[in-house]
Amino acid sequence: MKLTKREFAKGLVLAAGVAGFCPATLRAAEISEAEARVIAKEAYIYGFPMVDSYRIQHAYFVDPKNPEYKGPWNELVNIPRVYTPADTAVQTPNSDTPYSMLGLDLRAEPMVLTVPPIEKDRYFSIQLIDAYTFNFDYIGSRATGNDGGSFLIAGPGWKGETPVGVKKVIRSETELALAAYRTQLFNPDDLENVKKIQAGYRAEPLSRFLGQPAPEAAPAIDFITPLTAEEEKTSLEFFNVLNFLLQYAPTNPSETELMARFARIGVGAGKNFDASTLSPGMKSAIEQGIADAWVDLDALRKRTDAGDVTSGDMFGTREYLQNNYLYRMAAAALGIYGNSKQEAMYPIYAIDSDGKKLDGANRYTIHFAADDLPPVNAFWSLTMYNLPQSLLVANPIDRYLLNSPMLPQFVRDVDGGLTFYVQNEAPPKDKEPNWLPAPEGPFVIAMRLYWPKPEALDGTWKQPPITKAG
């Protein structure tokens, strides 16, 4: 039975009453405005990746009218092209590999993902991301090899055994999840080969994989309207979106006390956060808590710019992140759905060798010695993004990145090294093969190292600086 939004909202209010919480009591409850501010900051940092991920997945899998719509849940959709500036739902998108996208609703039964054999020198990966935005596992060249096979993705309530024909059972701790497929494209002429590989990917419910009757379908979800990226930064409706999502994310034992604390301000699975009932002082305290979260994030961003904290610290499993929620928020804000470092590393160019922020009003160079290119088992790239949007940059030659598959076309230095020219206007013709077009204003460059080698993982290899040209 599908509930209307009115019935759903009524149910939330009733549930809140049963749970002993009524928004109107927040003013008189045994919690001070100072305490509410601190808890609001904690809950916002905790919930931001979930709420922002929901914004994207609502566009991808829920709203057919959205230009970013891919298809319904549990239906694999191949995107037989790389991302361009027209793709705006995800910040800092990869433009190296055509994607395939699969929104996973694991409530009724597991899904089985089958991949075909893929030639050994072509990288592919299936990144499995839960509703918290943890990368809970991988299928692909690094993780499982290129020989193909079937892999079962199960939700938190599934109790079955490994079926015949399944190589591995992978468990998600949330009922809704995302599978992001990346298939390496060697060059534009290689696209037809990628399309053939994508056509060989298969995703199906376990019952269909086994040729058995399907179980009873899970109740239809009445998906609420997401906030825009801008609204997420200040709107108190943020906490209602979070409450909606927490219904599909059973509380991890490590977070039982955390959820009890969040409940003191009306945050929790199925609760109703009604900002209209708050006293002016309490409303201001909650708003200040949100602002405090962004202050903390800005401080962390300075540490990432300085290289004290890297992308490799911020993406990964729950076990790897050890409930560092600020790192998880930063990962979502700076480049949601980034890979765990074993799969890919993302050295960032945000400042030049003089410590100044990058801007298209200037010209820059990045120089790699002949024997010091990024150490990878798969491939590397340098991708340009404008700020503050962190989206791909439109330019006259439709070049959004430089990568290792392009090595044959680059012009080498006299000593065999590589110098890349990062600037808004085209360089002289003899340097144009090495040009990474920049916007007119602020920008950032993300280096990607896919399947990095040990010297990248342990920090032995360092990215060369970006230097302002004279």
Percent in helix: 25-40%
Shape: globular
Helix and strand content put the structural class at alpha+beta
Please mark out the parts with pLDDT under 50 across 5 or more consecutive residues, or reply none.
1-25
Number of separate helices = 11
- Report the average pLDDT across residues: 93
Task: Provide the β-strand percentage band.
Answer: 15-25%
Largest sheet: 5 strands, antiparallel
C-alpha Rg (nearest Å): 23 Å
* Count of beta strands: 18
SSE pattern, N- to C-terminal: HHEEEEEEEEHEHHHHHHHEEEEEEEEHE
Oligomer class: single chain
Distance between the termini: 68 Å
Order of strands across the widest beta sheet? 1-2-8-4-5
How would you characterize this protein structure?
By secondary structure, this protein is of the alpha+beta class. It has eleven helices and 18 strands. Strands 1-2-8-4-5 form a five-stranded antiparallel sheet, sandwiched between helices. α2 (33-61) crosses α7 (280-305), α2 (33-61) crosses α10 (325-335) and α7 crosses α10. The chain is globular and about 70 Å long.
Which characteristics define this entry?
single chain; 470 residues; alpha+beta; 5-stranded antiparallel β-sheet; 18 strands; 26% helix; disordered N terminus
The gist of it:
With about 475 residues, the chain is of the alpha+beta class. Helices cover about 25% and strands about 20% of the residues.
Topology:
Elements: H1 5-18, H2 33-61, E1 77-78, E2 99-105, E3 111-115, E4 124-130, E5 135-140, E6 149-154, E7 168-171, E8 176-183, H3 191-200, E9 202-205, H4 206-210, H5 238-246, H6 256-263, H7 280-305, H8 311-314, H9 318-321, H10 325-335, E10 344-345, E11 348-349, E12 364-368, E13 380-386, E14 401-403, E15 418-423, E16 435-437, E17 443-450, H11 454-457, E18 466-468
Parallel strand pairs: 6-7, 15-16
Antiparallel strand pairs: 1-2, 2-8, 3-6, 3-9, 4-5, 4-8, 10-17, 11-17, 12-15, 12-18, 13-14, 13-17
